[in-house]
Amino acid sequence: MSTSLVLAVVVLAIPLRAQMATSPPSTQPSQTPKVTFRRIFQGSSPEFIEISIREDSNSATYEIRQIDEDPGSQPFEVSPGLRAKIFALAGQLHQFQGLDLDVHRKIANLGEKTFRWEQGTVKHETKFNYTLNSAATQLLQIFEGLARQQEHYALLARRMRYDRLGINDALLQFESDLNRGLMPEPGRLIPLLEQISSDPRFVDIARQRARSLADRLRHSS
Asked: Which of 91, 101, 57, 94 minimizes the C-alpha distance to 75?
């Protein structure tokens, strides 16, 4: 092969290699199913809740805020068992395809709820104010329970950092919801409770309550 021909091949190959190196990653949507719950209820606190769960990962995201606050989701963890239950209920609801859950009666505004299914380019969603559907009610209770759970986590973490005298009140709120069985995975808060119980900067009554709650959750799990 002549020297000129070799040089020509090299010159042609350089732009091709550069194009391959700088080509953007695939923008094709993930084929992993994702279920998202959203509630918008103006005038309540919080006004906006959104939780997204992927079928193949314990890592989920949540966003809890007032409407006029800056948007931004935060990560949290869900167990494989709870994740499986969520997707089983979504399956019973046919992935929300063409589904009308609302009772269509004149009742109080309880906030607009949305269930959304995403898998690749396939998207289904249904909106409702109030439903009598058993599977939908169970799914709603799980998502609203997860929202309460994350609110308690955020409140305790905030009081630990900025308001140590208010930590016992936050623990009482958590204990009240725990007694009512409103949170699907309250054991997720055990690490925070252990930090409070072992930190001498908090008042004794708060440390004792945190220790008692942590023991209770460990024995119930």
From this structure: 57
